[in-house]
Amino acid sequence: MSKDERYDVVIIGGGPNGMTTAAYLAKCGLHVCVLEERVECGGACETVEVIPGVRIYPHAMLMYAAPAPGFEQLELHKYGFRMTWNPIDMMKSLSAGNTTTRGVSPITEKDMMGFAKLGGVLGQPPFTKELMRAAFWCPPHPPEVEVTDENVPYMQVYKQHQPDVWSHELREWTMFDLMDEYLESEPFKVTMAFAAWASGAAGHWEGVAIPALLCVQLLILPNTGKMSIPRGGLHGYFHAIHRCAVAHGAVVRTTCPVDEIIIEDGRAVGVRLRETAASGGKKIWASKAVISAVDYQQTFFKMIGGQHLDPGFIQKVKDISLKNGTLYVSTFHTRKPLQWNSKFKAMTESETSVAGPFNIPSGGVYPSDSRELYYENVADCDARKSLPTLPPEKLMWFLTPSQAFNPTDCQGSHSKGHISAAFEVNVPVPEYQVEGPEAQNEKKDELDAYMRKAFSEALDGLEDENIIHHWSATGREVEFRNTGLIGGTWCGSRHCSDQLWTQRPIPELARYRSPIDGLYTCHQTTGHPGALCLMAIPYNLMHILIEDGIAEPGNWWYPSPYYIPQEGKVSAIPR
Amino acid sequence: MATEDIFGHMFEEFPDESEWDVVVIGGGPNGLMAAAYLAKAGLKVALAEARYEIGGGLATEEILYPCYSSNPHVIYHMMVDYMPVIRDFNLDGPALVWIKPNSQTGMVFEDGKSLLLTRMIEDTKDSISKFSFKDAVNFGKIMRTWRRIVDEIVAPATYVPPMSPLDLTICMQRTEIGQEMLELVEQSPLDIITDTFENDRVRALMLYASCMWGLDPRETGLGFFVPLLLTRGMNKCYCYGGSHKFASAMAREIVKAGGLILEHAPVSNIIIENGRVAGVELAEGRTLRSKVVMSTLDPHTTFLDLVGADNMSADLKEAIEGWKYDKWSYYTLHIASDEPPHYKCDDPWINETFMTVFGIESTDQLLAHWDNVVAGNISDNFGGHATCQSIFDPTLSDIPDKSISFFQMHAPYEIGGGWDKRGEELKEAILGKWQKAAPNMTRDNIITTTFETPVDIEIRFPNMRRGSIKHGDYRPIQMGCFRPNQECSSTATPIEGLYVCGVSTYPGGLVLGGSGYLGANKVAEDLGVTKWWKPTPEMEKYIKTYLE
After folding, report:
1. Of B11, B242, B460, the CB nearest to A49
2. Residue A353 binned pLDDT confidence (cut-offs 50, 70, 90)
3. How far is A466 from chain B (nearest CA, A)?
4. In chain A, which residue's Cα lies nearest the Cα of B458?
5. What is the mean pLDDT of chain A?
6. Do A248 and A128 lie in a common domain?
7. In CATH, what number does B18-56+241-323+464-547 get?
8. Nearest-CA neighbor of A386 among A474, A318, A491?
9. Co-location of A267 and A408 in the same domain
10. How far apart are CA A2 and CA A521, in angstroms?
11. CA of B127 vs chain A CAs: smallest distance (Å)
């Protein structure tokens, strides 16, 4: 067994947050080690070739990160970052309409103008990038600063660029309230709300109207108005980040799960690996910082333990809510391609919703009839049952946007059949289920059959005779595969106003510091803005690591223009 | 207004045109090695891989989705003890952990008897003596010679450029062990095994271990492979975390040294300007310009598809067109189960064995099965080898305490009845045979399965044409200085700037770490770049004894 090792910084977890942080810190000249539990880094940014020639994306499949300063600061293009641009632009991709039980409901002029206005597209000049960066790429204000309508970054952007949108209510509204003000048709609003729910911030939560709407818009507007994706999907994007880290000297160790964060005199000084780690159960020491890029449960309850934390903190961490549901994803391998059924003729004729040579249906929320239906789905998901109780015809599901324009994409044809786009349904989080966390696994076959029935409301081709494979993973399976996706939640802890911004996930952790000196958190469950593989948490964390004298970046660094330094600390604004 | 004016400029992408010293096509073990050596030598290196992940056959993937990963391709690393790349990049320990179990290859028979090849020679002799004391003694004796043949000649020669058969014969005359090797060359594997052992079951195991990777049991001219495959077959290593870890470790060396890796980057064309190489065009439209291109692909793809027949001599074209792919491929059934297989046999060590052969009862049956495969059939007399990977590597299962195994057998690319039908049938037949050998392998024990046919191998790795894991058959006229042909076996080709260093070039496949290493040496020499690495001590001794 090799001897103990020492680094400046040890990062636990080689997902997008851990690896981006490694890239930033290695670029600052720090000696960094990333420890990943699985054989391959990437976390949720992964591609799996389930059978030869057939690939699926078990988790991240859409590109939300376009405005990230990381592209420029880490120069990802030098490490092979490429996009595949969707030939279809925003107006067209919105024009297909929304799928309801009555058929396709058109999107109105008011819907489109309202959507564009809130996204900064109609400003003079347009301010989309600035708005997005303000909302996601800025660390929460320090605890001594009172959060006001004047200093919330996205409020500042609206006030400057689109003052008629700025109002006190903007910070209090739900996304539905906001949409009622600016959009027109109910199915469009319901579709947006559902897409936000699947992206981590729901349409009905108080005070998160703008973040919730912007998460949906991140898919389209910053990708120059097109629903485009990186070449190779999100794992391709991750590769560029990974290689940037390695090129700057970061050491990456796979198959190295961490069992314990070593704490001496209240300070994190290193980690101890699990006995099954590739390098055995040895210790890896960190001179400057340990950064946990895994979830709060593993960090505080498994790797640290109660003796180093006070009961008040433990209670708050225990109470962090995961109740935004688990995304239950289905991908189908079929003999004949799936097709929108006759009610959705308009979808069949739209090039955005049946893309590629095999006309794979894609891009729709069904049924998007009304917010009452949306609420019924929310209530059912939060009801802690292992299986939905709604009749299948009422189940809301999301068929991901077409990526068939991308030759590297998984959707498409295979010598032995056709691969569908991914179907996503929000189902209860396993650990909240009254029947116990294993219940969903035990009823997986039943659940799969229920899903197929629900999808058959709008699509033909899901009969047993036509299906070769139905790939799916329950929340329980998700949390075993990717231990950081606790509860099987894709987006981490609930992005509600009580767990967002300076409250994310609890005020004590909001600035990525922890009660343990030298221990920082950097994971979608533990920091603003949360999920979506944005390179945002690492960028925001950089401000804090500069404040604490750990990172000293070169002149490639620039902080968020809305960042407020903490009193008594080094400012992250270069002098 | 342009879209960028509306939405703002967001990010840069990798440029449409870029300049490199060396472009490597293919991110399998040889491409990775070649790129890593040359990048560390200070050259500007770009590697283009068609798949979504580098590694080629060094793959560890969640093919039993969700939660269970397997090594769909490479698992038994035979040359870890000799490979220069592991030493030169100090991969042992810091980046890679190798597991080399003592129980290496077992064979179980229907009557409950078993045979075991072990890393430690006396354990093998103990096992053989259950059948024949004489064979056990002979095994011990012959292994003394065979180990020397491998250690002193065959293994170090793997990393030294090939010689013509005549030169080789002259050089080998210098030592007694060299002469013994030459004698072996002229015999067929079947002759060597039959002459050495008297017991039929012992012969069956030895023949299986010698020929399982594609040696023709009855062909003469490659007899030196028998000592190599037997001694290395007793020293197989498992890469902890899966074989892909080996690929990742090399990829990080490339990037650390400033090299670039592009995945999802199939090459559509090798650019030839004024009769020499000028770079490659990617299918996505980007161009990587360079004076040196190293292809690790199969000969047809490199020369006929990417270079184009117009850019080469008639002789070269003819040589490429005459290339023969592997005589057989593989069918593999992967399984996740609650329990590992417990074999019903007289030796509990079989349950911890790296590779367990079952279904083969005699030499005749084994030969009949192979003849069948070569003729395009698989009948009920099939046998093959199984490995329970999770015994050595619990990390393959995301759910604790579950088992992941596979069974692999020789199989034709084209099968009577077609793979669509036969694939499912064989799965059932294998499960039946497996349960006979290991009674706990019941349907209740099995969580999930997936199988891969030779056609699937080609789909996953298009360069393994016809499922050829070695990119071309092991036959005397395709080995040594004839691999892939006399003009190209040094890795340099008649096309200036084009090098070939995949497994279709000397020394060949099975993750020897040879072709990529030799390609890097050749390119470094041709470009006048200082080599930062030195031959291993074994290579130095071989060069001194036979080549100076």
Report:
1. B460
2. low
3. 16
4. A52
5. 92
6. no
7. 3.50.50.60
8. A474
9. no
10. 28
11. 32
Q: Rounded to a whole number, what is the largest CA-CA distance in chain A? A: 68
- B477 Cα distance to chain centroid: 19
Residue among A50, A221, A279 minimizing CB distance to B97: A279
**pLDDT truncated to tens, each residue of chain B (548 aa)?**
577 778 888 999 999 999 999 999 999 999 999 999 999 999 999 999 999 999 999 999 999 999 999 999 999 999 999 999 999 999 987 889 999 999 999 999 999 999 999 999 999 999 999 999 999 999 999 999 999 999 999 999 999 999 999 999 999 999 999 999 999 999 999 999 999 999 999 999 999 999 999 999 999 999 999 999 999 999 999 999 999 999 999 999 999 999 999 999 999 999 999 999 999 999 999 999 999 999 999 999 999 999 999 999 999 999 999 999 999 999 999 999 999 999 999 999 999 999 999 999 999 999 999 999 999 999 999 999 999 999 999 999 999 999 999 999 999 999 999 999 999 999 999 999 999 999 999 999 999 999 999 999 999 999 999 999 999 999 999 999 999 999 999 999 999 999 999 999 999 999 999 999 999 999 999 999 999 999 999 999 999 999 99
CB contact under 8 A, B394 and A276: yes
- A contacts of B336 (beta carbons < 8 Å): none
Picking from A47, A128, A480, the nearest residue to B52 by CB comes out as A47
Tell me which amino acid residue A85 is.
Answer: W
Same domain, A108 and A211: yes
In the three-class reduction of DSSP (H, G, I as helix; E, B as strand; rest coil), residue A406 is classed as coil
Distance (Å, rounded) from C-alpha B453 to C-alpha B409?
A: 10
Taking the alpha carbons of B211, B216, B217, B222 in that order, is the dihedral positive or negative? negative
Partners of B457 on chain A (C-beta within 8 Å) are 52
Give me the phi and psi of A234, to 5 degrees please. -70, -25
Q: What is the C-alpha separation between A329 and A324, in angstroms, rounded?
A: 15
> Are A563 and A540 a contacting pair, CB within 8 Å?
no
pTM surpassing 0.90? yes
Domain map (residue ranges) of chain B? 18-56+241-323+464-547
A451 and A369 belong to one structural domain: yes
A247 to B256: CB separation less than 8 angstroms, yes or no: yes
Residues from chain A contacting residue B283 (CB–CB below 8 Å): 407
More confident site: B60 or A39 = B60
Taking the CB of residue B388, how many other CB atoms lie within 10 A of it?
23
Q: What does the alpha-carbon distance between residue A171 and residue A541 come to, in Å, rounded to a whole number?
A: 24
Phi, psi of B5 (to 5 degrees): -65, -35
The Cβ of residue B444 has, within 10 Å, a number of other Cβ atoms equal to: 10
What single string gives the DSSP state of each residue in B370-414? Answer: HHHHHTT---TT--EEEEEGGGT-GGGBSSTT-EEEEEEEEE-SS
A51/B63 Cβ within 8 A: yes
First-to-final CA distance of chain B? 72
By DSSP bridging, strand B17-25 and strand B45-48 are parallel
Residues counted in chain A: 575
Does the distance separating the beta carbons of B62 and A48 come in below 8 Å? yes
Contact A2 B450 (CB under 8 A): no
CB B397 within 8 A of CB B389: no
- Verify that A357 and A270 share a domain, yes or no: no
In B42-59, which positions are buried (b, 16+ CB within 10 angstroms) versus exposed (e)? ebbbbbbbbbbbbbbbbb
What is the H or E stretch that residue A542 is in?
helix A536-547
The Cα B31–Cα B54 span in angstroms is 10
Q: Which residues of A touch B97 (CB under 8 A)?
A: 278-279
Tell me how far the alpha carbon of residue B383 is from its chain's centroid: 21
- What range defines the domain where residue A476 resides? 326-488
Q: What is the ipTM of this complex?
A: 0.96
Residue A40 DSSP label: S
Most B-contacting residue of A39, A86, A112 (CB-CB within 10 A), to test interface: A39
